[in-house]
């Protein structure tokens, strides 16, 4: 994991990357590959409609939480629990007509926290830690059976696709490691 005050660290959830786009009374959910899953995850769509802001674009991870509170990728992938899938929001790209992608990540997270302050079941603010935390958070993530951690440079603008400003440190014993090689 990178260290220093310039980094933010988040839990890497085992789910599907999802863009939530709200424009007035219309909510659309897009996958990384551009598939429209607007009707697939109703809890996420309904939560976006209940938000007081009428126009936004949020980046996050769609997850199915197991009884232990950890993401259950097999249950998510089975499609049998689509109505229970929730979103862990980790970035906001646009808000009320303003493009926020050029803002530093820490300011985008401030905006995201502000619009998600009134908790609505279905969309959660992904928690994060700042600064140089050392190896302990990663070790604990592994002990808890989590997929890993993602470290992001706090002062960088948003870029689509892979970025050297995002460093994923995966738990080598997590089932996602074997899936990524299939």
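-> sequence recovered:
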């Amino acid at each position: 994991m990178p260290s220093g005050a310039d980094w933010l660290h988040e839990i890497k959830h085992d789910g599907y990357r999802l863009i939530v786009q709200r424009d007035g009374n219309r909510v659309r959910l897009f996958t990384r590959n551009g598939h429209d899953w607007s009707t697939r995850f109703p809890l996420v769509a309904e939560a976006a409609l209940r938000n007081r802001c009428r126009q936004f674009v949020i980046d996050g991870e769609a997850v199915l939480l197991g009884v232990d509170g950890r993401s259950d990728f097999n249950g998510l992938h089975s499609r049998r629990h689509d109505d229970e899938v929730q979103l862990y929001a980790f970035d906001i790209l646009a808000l009320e007509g303003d493009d926020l992608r050029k803002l530093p990540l820490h300011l985008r997270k401030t905006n995201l926290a502000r619009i998600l302050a009134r908790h609505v079941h279905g969309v959660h603010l992904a928690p994060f830690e700042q600064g140089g935390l050392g190896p302990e958070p990663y070790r604990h993530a592994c002990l808890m059976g989590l997929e890993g951690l993602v470290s992001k440079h706090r002062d960088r603008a948003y870029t689509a696709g892979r970025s050297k400003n995002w460093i994923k440190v995966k738990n080598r014993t997590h089932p996602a490691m074997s899936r990524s090689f299939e």
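The mean pLDDT is 88.
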